Amino acid sequence: MDEFIRAVEAAVFASDEPLTVEDIAAYAGEGDVPAALRTLAERYAGHGVELVERGERWHFQTAPDLAHILRRTREDSRRLSRAATETLAIIAYHEPVSRAEIEAIRGVQISKGTLDVLMEAGWVKTAGRREAPGRPLLYATTPDFLTHFGLGSRRDLPGIDDLKAAGLLDPLEESLFQLQLETDGEED
């Protein structure tokens, strides 16, 4: 095996967090990092661990069909409240978004604790301030959000047809969701 590819493999394997191509190059040295990553991804495809890219960061993960084997050793994750789930969805689909915009979409105020839970989980971060009166904080999702939900990018979020097919929208929610999408499109 090519020494550079081995160096790339070692850098990704030893890291405790996903790495960008630039991070990997800093460890592995001069060479075609993207080509080495493609080679390794092909080599590991179908194995117990796979090399994957999530949010322009690379890491090894357990093959999805084997994840159930390790569930006993992982710590139990807390279940998100409905408010936190709705808030996370709004941020993911509308980012960057302010607290007032989240509340306008949800139709109710959110407690500061809701955003704190999402930030503690590492799925949401502050993303600057809006150039508007009061300069409100903006919120966006993180690379950890993409990794946790198995998304390559935000473009991989399910669309309205996917949500309907999964039975996750009732007729009232569907019309509200469609109205929100249309409203967002007019603002662009």
UniProtKB/TrEMBL annotation:
Pfam families: SMC_ScpB (PF04079). InterPro entries: ScpB_csome_segregation, WH-like_DNA-bd_sf, WH_DNA-bd_sf. SUPFAM superfamilies: Winged helix' DNA-binding domain. Keywords: Cell cycle, Cell division, Chromosome partition, Cytoplasm. The keyword Nucleotide-binding does not apply. It comes from the Bacteria. This is SMC-Scp complex subunit ScpB. The gene is scpB.
